[in-house]
Amino acid sequence: MMNALVLTERMGSILRVTINRADKRNALSRDTLVALKAAFEAHAGDRTLTAAVLTGAGDRAFAAGGDLHELQGLVTAEAIEEMTLLARAALDSVRRFPVPVVAALNGDAFGGGAELAMACDLRLAAAHIRIAFLQGRLAIPTAWGGGIDLMRLVGTARAMELLASSRMVPAAEAVGLGLASAVAPADIAFDAFIMGWLEGWSHQRPQVMRAFKAQALAERLGLPRAEREAAELAGFVESWLHEDHVDAAARAIAGMRSAPRSTG
């Protein structure tokens, strides 16, 4: 546990991070954003992790956006910029986390909460949730990097429609738009669905997942091809020399030798 506002739990090789403000629909206050950043930074050096899951407490909201009562107190350009940079740094700790981060959308993701969901590498949704970029209803654009993420994820035309309409996107449509990867069936507990979905990754080793994330991050950041190739090469060399690969290769060769030969 990093802080009462943000809870952390280790489940095997998976880190679970929970925004713990169910009574406030997990609104992203300044202190919550600071705690979120601290939670991810505290575990960034853990080379035994294969993935992280980010979710919200309860089942009403993943994150309802920025804490409006707090944000309304920002009345100078300096204060607005300082808060924006703080929030962006918190979301960057998610974007740049060295293994994939899965947003477990247990409830609605609105405004800044939608931006936080986009900061994750992929999203899994409960059937009742909605995603909405509601910033335009408050006469403001996105500011925490979520608009940039959205355009890279679904394309500029589709992102423009979602931003300009500020409409609620239900879970099933979110999958069709590419905002979410899957929706949990109604007859399966959401936590069980998340862990079952991640079970497909269970055979991957931490260093391999870090290499996959490095490639994904290079794409997200639009890095030059040379930098992407360097990231790919570094991950490949590290993984090749790791004992996990040595053992896996030895088993594969042994299996080839023991396989029955065709007599033609």
From TrEMBL:
Signal peptide location: none
CDD domains: crotonase-like
InterPro entries: ClpP/crotonase-like_dom_sf (IPR029045), Enoyl-CoA_hyd/isom_CS (IPR018376), Enoyl-CoA_hydra/iso (IPR001753)
Membrane spanning residue stretches: none
Record Pfam families: ECH_1
The family this protein is said to belong to: Belongs to the enoyl-CoA hydratase/isomerase family.
Protein name, UniProt field: Enoyl-CoA hydratase/isomerase family protein
Organism: Azospirillum oleiclasticum
